Amino acid sequence: LMERLNISPTRRIAGLGRHQIKELRNEFMKNTHAVRPGKLIVLSGPGGVGKSTIAALLRKSGDFWVSVSATTRQPRNNELNGIDYFFITNDEFDRRIKEDEFLEWAEFAGNRYGTPQEKVEQALLLGRNVLLEIEIAGAKQVKSHLPQSILVFLEPPTWEELVARLEGRGTDSPERRAARLALAQEEMAQASFFDKVLINDQVDGVVASLIEFASA
Ligand code: 5GP
Known about the structure:
Blueprint: H1 18-31, E1 40-44, H2 51-61, E2 65-66, E3 70-71, E4 86-87, H3 90-98, E5 102-108, E6 111-116, H4 117-125, E7 130-133, H5 136-145, E8 150-155, H6 159-167, H7 174-188, E9 196-199, H8 203-215
Helix pairs in contact: 2-8
Bound molecules: guanosine-5'-monophosphate.
């Protein structure tokens, strides 16, 4: 691997640059057969479609290790730090980008969200199936870093149902809700980029399909 990446064999890990370590890690992720690495499933889709409900069920099922993202958004009423998200400041988010700590990150409706890279890779190398529940730009970044990942797009049964769900979110201001609707419309047009499309008409069916993709 080191030869392929033009890293001298006399170099020690501690002496490698940040980018060299990243390239080496990516190569390991593609090539390791020591333990059967877990599958990386990326669940995406328009805001309000119900991704987080599915993610919570999969976490409970034990079939997946579900990543907890970092975000600069303020916590909602019932959200807990370290469980729903790691709620961090803009400065801390900047630092993590600079230190290359995110597998992907994106801005969504005025806030930033990112997936901690190291924990995801560790879980995969230990053979765990990993689920990321993220928005579309981030999903595309994951695919370009880790082409073996499976991108799944979750669609609402109808557009009207998605609108009803987004409008029912009492925690958002009217401006924020309007922005989320406009974004959802753009997001719905992205399904064809994904490896699989699931319709969220029955939560249990979606959960079963995701478990099946990971074991296929
Ligand atoms: P919310 O603020 O409603 O919790 O999430 C807004 C959007 O950000 C959702 O579509 C959610 O899937 C996405 N999201 C959550 N965590 C991440 C992340 O780590 N990276 C990216 N790219 N999107 C995320």
